[in-house]
């Protein structure tokens, strides 16, 4: 199954559920019931809007690496990514900003796009304000922090933020579909041309 088979939507939106701290984490609250209930409540909000998929992360199991990754770690990651990509074990590439919730540099998206034929997903920093600037550059969006109260990844999902993002995305999808249908003289195009 390919990425396009899994997500037939134009630039699919994948939302992040950041689990509350889990057992073994320094910040674990002592009960899995709260972890389950919070995750299910957030998933329920996402079902009300144009969210095409979910990623469940143990984001709140901090502490993480305290500073930027060392260059040798980044190099090893890049080498491994290329290896698994060439073996056909990767369905998409995620390009993210420097930290959770930080905007992804559009130049980084362009650079990755030059070196892969795989779908490229925006991995962090998407907001209704910057969405028009990155929408045509990517094949999909992963959004977590923006959906949270005050845009902070540690907070819970705020429905009004999900709604605002979904409305902005819907408008861009409609514009892209109209443009693509004109370009193909009424033919159906599943994905916008992201090579420009």
- Report the count of strand segments: 5
Q: Number of helix segments?
A: 6
CATH hierarchy, class? Alpha Beta
Largest sheet: 5 strands, parallel
Helical content band:
25-40%
Structural class by helix and strand composition: alpha/beta
CATH topology: TIM Barrel
Number of domains: 1
Mean pLDDT: 81
Radius of gyration: 18 Å
CATH architecture: Alpha-Beta Barrel
Low-confidence stretches: 185-196
| Beta content | 5-15%
Order the strands across the largest sheet as they lie in space. Answer: 2-1-5-4-3
Which shape, going by the Cα principal axes? globular
Keywords:
196 residues, alpha/beta, five-stranded parallel β-sheet, 6 helices, 11% strand, globular
Description:
This protein has a single domain (3-63, 92-183), classed as TIM Barrel (Alpha-Beta Barrel), CATH 3.20.20. The chain has helices spanning 3-6, 32-47, 71-86, 106-114, 131-134, 159-183; strands at residues 13-18, 53-57, 93-95, 120-122, 140-143. The chain has a five-stranded parallel beta sheet, covered by helices on one side. The protein has six helices and five strands, in the order H-E-H-E-H-E-H-E-H-E-H. With 196 residues, the protein is of the alpha/beta class. 38% of the residues lie in helices and 11% in strands. Strand 1, helix 2 and strand 2 form a beta-alpha-beta unit.
């Amino acid at each position: 199954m390919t990425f396009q088979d899994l997500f037939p939507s134009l630039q699919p939106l994948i939302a992040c559920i950041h689990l509350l701290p889990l057992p073994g984490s320094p910040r674990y609250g002592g009960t899995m019931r709260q972890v389950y209930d919070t995750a299910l409540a957030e998933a329920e909000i996402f079902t009300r809007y144009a969210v095409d998929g979910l990623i469940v992360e143990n984001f709140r199991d901090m502490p993480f690496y305290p500073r930027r990754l060392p260059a040798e770690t980044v190099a090893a990651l890049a080498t491994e990514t290329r290896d698994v990509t060439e073996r056909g074990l990767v369905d998409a590439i995620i390009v993210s900003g420097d930290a959770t919730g930080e905007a992804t540099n559009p130049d980084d998206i362009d650079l990755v796009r030059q070196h892969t034929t795989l779908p490229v997903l925006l991995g962090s920093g998407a907001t209704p304000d910057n969405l028009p600037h990155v929408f045509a550059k990517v094949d999909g969006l992963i959004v977590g922090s923006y959906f949270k109260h005050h845009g902070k990844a540690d907070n819970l999902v705020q429905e009004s933020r999900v709604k605002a993002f979904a409305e902005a995305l819907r408008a861009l999808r409609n514009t892209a579909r109209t443009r693509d249908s004109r370009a193909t003289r009424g033919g159906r195009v599943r994905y916008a041309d992201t090579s420009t």
